[in-house]
């Protein structure tokens, strides 16, 4: 994948399990980039000032990326994750013929209960008697929770594992989070992401030498990419 910043000709190549770090030494530019990332990904702000292009196309997929700015405030129920979770649960259930048949029988029983109640009213009515699995999961508000006493690194790694299993091709951008982890934890994190061939870009405002086998791009204080 290619991370593009307007005003810089050279793209930042990342992904496929490589460890890639963009260091933005100028504080104002770093802040501006992170604010833009948050606006594009989480607030659906439209701009071509920064983009992520897939390797085989010129399609900008930055809005579909997952952004981590604070490891203490991970959104375990971000829209791409929950959507993928619902799709995966539905696929597993549908592939298991017996369980899917059992689910259909439960829905039929619930419909009968509702029907018996509604028939007491002197009105005509209609309703959909088939509830798609994803609709059911949304209706019961299925969400991912975490143990509040779980160590922060364990939660972070579990979150990365969740992304790798549910949305393995989604670009993941991690901003200034490595300061919270030990060298061993960073190595363990990178080892896992390398193994899963995840598309990860670290963005820092200072050089972090703890990332193993790192491809490093630097925008220095003079705003030159080196």
TrEMBL record:
Q: InterPro entries, per this entry?
A: CRISPR-assoc_prot_Csn2-typ, Csn2_sf
Task: List the protein's name.
Answer: Type II-A CRISPR-associated protein Csn2
User: What Pfam families is this protein classified in?
Assistant: Cas_Csn2
- Tell me the NCBIfam families matching this sequence: cas_Csn2
Instruction: Tell me what organism the protein belongs to.
Output: Intestinibaculum porci
Q: Which domain of life is it from?
A: Bacteria
């Amino acid at each position: 994948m290619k991370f593009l910043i307007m005003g810089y000709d050279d793209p930042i190549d990342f992904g496929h399990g490589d460890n890639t770090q963009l260091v933005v030494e100028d504080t104002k530019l770093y802040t501006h980039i992170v604010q833009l990332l948050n606006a594009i990904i989480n607030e659906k702000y439209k701009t071509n000032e920064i983009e992520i292009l897939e390797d085989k196309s010129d399609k900008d997929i930055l809005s579909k990326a997952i952004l981590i700015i604070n490891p203490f405030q991970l959104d375990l129920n971000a829209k791409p994750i929950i959507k993928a979770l619902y799709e995966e649960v539905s696929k597993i259930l549908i592939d298991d013929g017996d369980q899917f048949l059992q689910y259909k029988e439960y829905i039929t029983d619930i419909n009968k209960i509702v029907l018996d109640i509604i028939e007491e009213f002197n009105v005509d009515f209609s309703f959909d008697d088939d509830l798609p699995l994803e609709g059911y999961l949304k209706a019961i508000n299925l969400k991912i929770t975490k143990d509040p006493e779980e160590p922060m690194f364990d939660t972070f790694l579990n979150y990365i594992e969740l992304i790798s299993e549910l949305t393995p091709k989604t670009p993941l951008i991690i901003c200034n989070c490595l300061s919270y982890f030990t060298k061993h934890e960073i190595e363990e994190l990178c080892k896992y992401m390398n193994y899963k061939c995840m598309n990860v870009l670290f963005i820092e405002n200072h050089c972090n030498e703890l990332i193993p086998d790192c491809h490093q791009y630097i925008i220095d204080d003079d705003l030159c990419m080196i």
